[in-house]
Amino acid sequence: MAPSKTKHAKQACVIPGGFTVLSLQFSTDSVAQHKICVKEHRVRAEKTTQRPLDRTLFVLNIPPYCSEGVIKELFSQFGPVQSVELREKPGSFEHSGPKLAKYFTPAQKQGFRVGYIVFQKAISITAVKSHPHDVPLVVSTEQRPVWTGLQKWIHQYKQSFAQPDKLQEAVDTFMQDYDKRKEEEAERQKEEAEEQLEDEEGWVKVTRGKSGTKTRPHSEVSNQKALQKESRKRKRKELMNFYTWQHRNTQKEHIAELRKKFEEDKQRIALLRAQRKFRPY
Questions:
Q1: Which Pfam families has this protein been placed in (predicted)?
Q2: Is 212 left (phi over 0), alpha (psi -120 to 50) or beta?
Q3: Nearest C-alpha neighbor of 28 from the set 161, 114, 144, 153
Q4: Termini Cα distance of the chain
Q5: Which of 58, 153, 186, 215 makes an SS bond possible with 41, Cβ 3.0 to 4.6 Å?
Q6: Distance CA 22, CA 71 (A)
Q7: Are 207 and 143 in contact (CB under 8 A)?
Q8: Per-residue CA distances from 281 to 103, 146, 218, 268 (Å)
């Protein structure tokens, strides 16, 4: 007896490699569907809190019209989403410093991308992997419309104009964070300089550090002082071959020494010829 089609209609589609295939449909009126592959993100070498191993979903073949906000809204039906990260190709998490405002970030390349979705609960990963293959995820709905084509270009064009008050606010916020980081860096260097005191003879005073930290006898300040001390020693030494006449005399002495050795070798060869013991080979 042939198996019933309705029995397998609500099953998830798992392909080799452990990926689960999900169907994307741009809108309810669309006929074509797009396929994405999802898999639980488990990389032992990556020990970062931004991608916890038990709550991170790795997604392949994300279409260009899906932004981070669209992906977050799309997968929120499986559980609350903590963060979404879209990249051009898979890779480890890289902290690129403070997050800049949209006015100072370059435009991203348009194309299919990969994504890392972090859920707040681990059970959401199981819900995504068990989603039926024949039930597509609708991207654009009346509640969350997604613009494409001419409407998207018009929206991007309008958003490209920066309002002076918002731009000034973003600049002020960035400069405040920059000044704060500079003050913290200067304070840290000052503390290191005070902890690692070096006297004139080159001895380093090792002091007790804070609880849970290791003292570093060779700090950046002490290394700079040691380099300065070595440069002063080299300056005190006599400068050799500094003047042109010194260099010329050195060359003359070297040539005279070579000529002397050449004459000695000629005399030794002549003596061997006279004694009939000359063996050139």
A1: RRM_1, RRP7
A2: left
A3: 144
A4: 98
A5: 58
A6: 13
A7: no
A8: 82, 91, 60, 16
Cα 111 from Cα 89, distance rounded (Å):
11
Q: Could you tell me if 20 and 1 are in contact, meaning their C-beta atoms sit under 8 angstroms apart? A: no
Query: 101 is written with which tokens?
Result: 């405002």
- The whole model's pTM is what? 0.53
Query: CB of 63 within 8 A of CB of 115?
Result: no
The amino acid at 257: E
Please, which residues bridge with residue 83 across strands?
Answer: 118
CB 64 within 8 A of CB 36: no
Output the pLDDT for position 119.
Answer: 94
Rounded distance between C-alpha atoms, residue 51 and residue 57, angstroms: 9
Matching residue, tokens 């929120």: 76
The structure tokens listed for 180 are: 């704060």
**Contact of 87 with 113, CB cutoff 8 Å:** yes
The candidate with the shortest Cα–Cα distance to 86, out of 110, 119, 121, is: 110
What's the CA gap between 140 and 25, in Å, rounded?
A: 8
Query: What is the tens place of the pLDDT at every residue in 138-184?
Result: 888 888 888 777 887 887 788 777 788 888 888 888 889 889 999 99
Q: Which two tokens stand for residue 143?
A: 């509640």
